[in-house]
Write a structure and sequence with these properties.
The protein has a single domain, classed as 2,3-Dihydroxybiphenyl 1,2-Dioxygenase, domain 1, CATH 3.10.180. Helix content is 14%, strand content 35%. It has two helices and eight strands. The strands form two sheets. A four-stranded mixed β-sheet has the order 1-4-3-2, covered by helices on one side. Strands 5-8-7-6 form a four-stranded mixed β-sheet. The longest helix is centred in the N-terminal third of the chain and has 12 residues. The protein starts with 7 loop residues before the first strand and ends in a 5-residue tail after the last strand.
Length: 125
């Protein structure tokens, strides 16, 4: 049985600004969705081969409330956190160790006003 969560939509107000932010912070490509280029962008793994499990979309309301989306930091949470502010985001809570089951987490606010979690397993550092 796979993961329970299969897809995440991250609401944004400006698709180009949000795409640039996520590409910079994650180090992976953010690709316009064919046929919906001005409304949806797909978040890819840093090497572009890990598949897509989230998108940025115009149509919702960005928020720091509600469910928190956690992005994979591909074993380098420090590098991901270091790119947040230069990309226009804010660090809400610096990296902290949450125990061996969870690992390292940090919380950021993206350029659109969404609260996003960053996660790295404990055995990665």
């Amino acid at each position: 049985m796979g993961n329970t969560i299969v897809w995440v939509d991250i609401p944004v107000m400006d698709i180009k600004r949000a795409s640039a932010f996520y590409a910079t912070v994650t180090g992976g490509p953010v690709m316009p969705m064919p046929g919906a280029e001005e409304e949806v962008a797909l978040l890819m793994s840093p090497d572009g081969t890990g598949g897509v499990s989230a998108d940025l979309y115009i149509g919702g309301t960005p928020s720091k409330d509600g469910a928190t989306v956690y992005l994979n930091t591909w074993g380098d949470i420090d590098a991901v956190v270091s790119r947040v502010v230069p990309a226009g985001g804010t660090i809400i809570r610096d990296k902290q160790f949450m125990g061996p089951m969870v690992g390292w987490v940090a919380f950021i606010e993206d350029t659109e006003g969404n609260r996003i979690g960053l996660q790295q397993p404990a055995d990665d550092k």
